Amino acid sequence: MIEIVVVGDAEAAARAGAEHLVEAARAGKQLALSGGSTPGRAFELAAELEPDWSRAGLWWGDDRAVPPDDERSNYRLAKEHLLDRLEGLPAEHRIRGELGAAAAAEAYERELEGITLDLALQGIGPDGHTASLFPGKPSLEERERRVIASEPGLEPWVERVTLTIPALCAIPFVLFLVSGEGKADAARRAFTDEPSAGTPASLVRGAARTVVVLDKAAARYI
User: Fold this and answer.
1) How far is residue 177's CA from residue 149's CA, in Å, rounded to a whole number?
2) How far is CA 219 from the centre of its chain?
3) pTM confidence score
4) pLDDT at 192 over 90
5) Is residue 82 part of a domain?
6) What CATH number does the domain containing 59 carry?
């Protein structure tokens, strides 16, 4: 079952996401973060709600194969909008994109050995992708590994590293944050239509709980 929560606007969606993140951080959970504008604001609000994340562990669901200070880096987004605003820092486990996609994926797979992730924060693109899992790409077929190098599916055209569908679906709580009318059709396909490789987000569900927070614009067709 999917829990769909519709709120008034992008700010309200970010706040709802922040509240879930803070609850998990206070409980000392292992969180896998994502990039994007809505998560960025959610990170800021989460830091305001709870400045001490020292009990939590931070991981990333995907990132681009770039150094951590690159403007395209999901790690940099989280650092600027969350980590730099905290008083008590979590243990962080970033994807080392500067190694190149293949080497970074292997290193991250090793780092995840024995780790159970508790929550994954996910976005969705207008094409229906989530993490770095793009429509029609070979990465959707991976069933053995938790982490793989992923071919670029949209701009910026840079290789990526991503958790696989089995890895994401093994996480107990998957939280989707979706805002903006440009995501409305993809949200319909991901959360109301039958699962399809044409909409990778439709293939990702939490092992115990899936919550989808949308603003009214993104929920237009739901």
Assistant:
1) 24
2) 19
3) 0.97
4) yes
5) yes
6) 3.40.50.1360
